[in-house]
Specification:
Length: 488
């Protein structure tokens, strides 16, 4: 169409093409607008499932590799199979910031499907550790890109009233992927698990194809007509769509339409506050030790079971992780984010302290060691409590904050920066976990995670803005007002 839709509406002119488009996309029938938003959440959710299968792969796969007579792997190589994924996810998150701002959020997610599937095929057909590591590297890139693109896409698709439910869906899918990875490891070899991972990447396309690009991105790239059409597809009435379009337009200054926003501008006031909090949340999330626990769950549980039952217990871990997400969903819809972080911190610190005490007794020898043998289920119970606590707060909230708390103007680059820090932290935690356990002892390692979690939570509660039921426009105003007060 040669004229913007706004101009045509002002003149009272409508073409047949516009009328047909309006009939198809501007007035969703029944609850179709909810279905479209649900499809967006499902697309990001399936992507999260694929990512969590990638994260959880090493726990069942490494024992399978050791047992494979046609495959040789050393302990050092095992650590690299685990650690190379978050290292490459860091790179993937960095390069995705400019991509989601230029190509678009939906387009970026669509293009991720094929390299993600290819990474799993490389692992499944590999005859050496080198091939596995290369596949994990490519998979890590895709995980990092998915984390950024999905975190930007979802909050820009769903409306505020549905955000608490919709933004929790990726967490459910993510934990389902972890459970699937652990459970499948009981029946599939490491190659079979890789083929399963390849299949998990494909459904994203089916959910994304019927959806438009996000209205926020369309507006910032000068396509307000397309943005309004997208909103009419995604919102319950034309009035809701037009009101939100006006809010998006108002939140965009004339300079917002430029795709080239510098990294320096991203960390300047008023953006510095939310970006700093986002970085703090991601570092704190990793210092709970979650990535190492997921990667080496079977090994941790084996150490408590004296070498028996660790794999089976890790399946239970995955199941509890999955169902605890639903508890987290309900809590996230009813309680403020800082309240949930406090509860999550309490449970995590307590469970890590129990694990630390158990492994101290186990390594101490004498009567303490006998007590530890009697209480050999403590690692299982401790890790189950740990997973529940993580699902209540430290798991979802850092990611939810990226959607709810990041300034819309710099969201692409800001999310990429924050996620990169997350993966850098994950790499360091994963790579050093084995060294910490062998050099310092499991008890000191878990105690260190407990202390780090408690300190991080105390500091972040003081500076984290509350995002519960706040729109993007409201958060933008909060940051701008805070910046003005600081300048006075």
């Amino acid at each position: 169409m040669s004229e913007p839709a706004e101009a045509k509406m002002d003149k009272g002119e409508t073409t047949t093409e516009t009328e047909e488009l309006t009939e198809k996309t501007t007035e969703p029938t029944g609850i179709s607008y909810v279905i479209y938003q649900g499809m967006g959440a499902a697309a990001v959710g399936v992507g999260a499932l694929a990512c969590s299968v990638t994260l959880g792969y090493t726990s069942p796969a490494l024992p399978s590799m050791r047992a494979d007579p046609d495959f040789f792997i050393t302990e050092e190589q095992e650590s690299w199979v685990g650690a190379v994924m978050p290292a490459c996810a860091l790179v993937g998150s960095v390069i995705t910031g400019p991509l989601v701002d230029s190509l678009g959020r939906r387009t970026t997610l669509l293009h991720l499907t094929w390299p993600f599937a290819l990474s799993w095929m490389m692992i499944a057909t590999s005859s050496s550790v080198t091939g596995v590591v290369l596949g994990r590297m490519m998979g890590g890139l895709c995980v990092g890109m998915q984390a950024v693109a999905g975190s930007v896409f979802l909050p820009e698709i769903v409306e505020v009233e549905l955000r608490n439910i919709m933004t929790a869906i990726p967490a459910v899918f993510g934990n389902l992927g972890l459970m699937l990875s652990f459970a499948s490891g009981q029946y599939l070899t490491w190659r079979g698990l890789a083929w399963l991972g390849a299949l998990m990447t494909l459904p994203v396309v089916l959910f994304l194809l019927p959806l438009p690009e996000t209205p926020s991105h369309l507006t910032r790239t000068g396509r307000k007509e397309s943005s309004l059409i997208a909103l009419r597809q995604l919102r319950r009435t034309t009035q809701h769509a037009e009101k939100e379009q006006q809010e998006i337009t108002n939140s965009c200054s004339s300079s917002d339409s430029k795709a080239d926003i510098s990294v320096w501008e991203t960390v300047q006031s008023p953006n510095l506050w939310p970006v700093s909090v986002g970085i703090g949340l991601m570092v704190a999330q990793q210092t709970t030790g979650i990535t190492a626990v997921v990667f080496f769950a079977s090994s941790i549980l084996d150490s408590g079971e004296d070498g028996a039952g660790g794999s089976a217990a890790s399946v239970l871990l995955g199941v509890v992780n999955f169902f605890s997400t639903f508890v987290g969903m309900i809590a996230m819809a009813k309680f403020k984010r800082r309240q949930m972080l406090s509860l999550s911190t309490t449970v995590i610190v307590a469970s890590l302290f129990i694990l630390s005490l158990f492994f101290w007794a186990k390594d101490a020898g004498g009567s303490y060691s006998d007590i530890a043998k009697t209480l050999h289920l403590v690692p299982v119970v401790g890790l189950l409590a740990y997973i529940i606590g993580f699902s209540l707060g430290w798991g979802p909230i850092p990611w939810v904050f990226l959607g709810e708390g990041m300034p819309s103007r710099v969201r692409g680059k800001a999310v990429a920066m924050v996620v990169a820090v997350n993966w850098a932290s994950a790499f360091l935690i994963t790579k050093t976990f084995g060294w910490c356990v062998s050099s310092l002892g499991a008890h000191t390692t878990f105690l260190g995670y407990a202390v780090a979690t408690a300190v991080s939570a105390t500091l972040l509660r003081r500076v984290m803005p509350e995002t519960f039921l706040q729109s993007a426009a409201q958060m933008n105003r909060l940051y701008q007002e805070a910046a003005k007060i600081k300048q006075q």
